[in-house]
Amino acid sequence: MKTIAVLVGSLRSGSFNLKLAKALEKLAEGRLKFVYPDLGSVPHYNDDLWSDLPASVTALKSAIDESDAVLFVTPEYNRTYSPLLANAIAWASRPYGKSSFMHKPGAVVGTSPGAIGTAAGQVDLRGLLPVLGVIPMGQPEVYLQMKPDLIDDASNVTVPDTEAFLKRWVDAFVAFVDRVAL
Ligand SMILES: Cc1cc2nc3c(=O)[nH]c(=O)nc-3n(C[C@H](O)[C@H](O)[C@H](O)COP(=O)(O)O)c2cc1C
């Protein structure tokens, strides 16, 4: 079974994006293993720290290095992806020439209560993926407008059409990772 490093761009305890990640994990049960590096303990990027690297950064890079693919689950902050993700991405992309993302298949999804469902934030993030060395899955896309109780506490998607939509995305991602992962 392929392992996916899932980078969720929110630390909020009730994060809709974490809910989305967990729902996708459930829909991929038995086909993909999701691991969630702890982005909250990673310090602000600072070149000086490479001489005595914080364990949180080592753990982040190892989790990505050891995964077959990466999944970015991003909120939209001011029409771009979240600063939490930007910081984690900066660390994992370094040192120069040793990006943990290099040659990894990857995809971007996201959710927000807003009508465009993180479309603007995702567009920004997708533009970054080739720079990182990620081989992006272009289609299908997930721009999900979060509604109350759309995803329940057991990570079930409660609206059948949305569940089917997300399941199609999972099927495509499983096939993409199988095809592209080294
Ligand atoms: C600084 C900030 C900027 C935001 N900008 C946007 C935005 O551009 N578009 C949008 O749809 N929602 C925006 N939101 C609302 C977030 O989508 C909302 O807080 C969402 O719940 C965050 O994701 P989470 O639930 O995973 O924490 C913004 C929220 C914050 C805190």
UniProtKB/TrEMBL annotation:
<dbReference type="InterPro" id="IPR029039">
    <property type="entry name" value="Flavoprotein-like_sf"/>
</dbReference>
<dbReference type="InterPro" id="IPR050712">
    <property type="entry name" value="NAD(P)H-dep_reductase"/>
</dbReference>
<feature type="domain" description="NADPH-dependent FMN reductase-like">
    <location>
        <begin position="4"/>
        <end position="146"/>
    </location>
</feature>
<dbReference type="GO" id="GO:0010181">
    <property type="term" value="F:FMN binding"/>
</dbReference>
<dbReference type="GO" id="GO:0005829">
    <property type="term" value="C:cytosol"/>
</dbReference>
<dbReference type="GO" id="GO:0016491">
    <property type="term" value="F:oxidoreductase activity"/>
</dbReference>
<protein>
    <submittedName>
        <fullName>NAD(P)H-dependent oxidoreductase</fullName>
    </submittedName>
</protein>
<dbReference type="InterPro" id="IPR005025">
    <property type="entry name" value="FMN_Rdtase-like_dom"/>
</dbReference>
<dbReference type="Pfam" id="PF03358">
    <property type="entry name" value="FMN_red"/>
</dbReference>
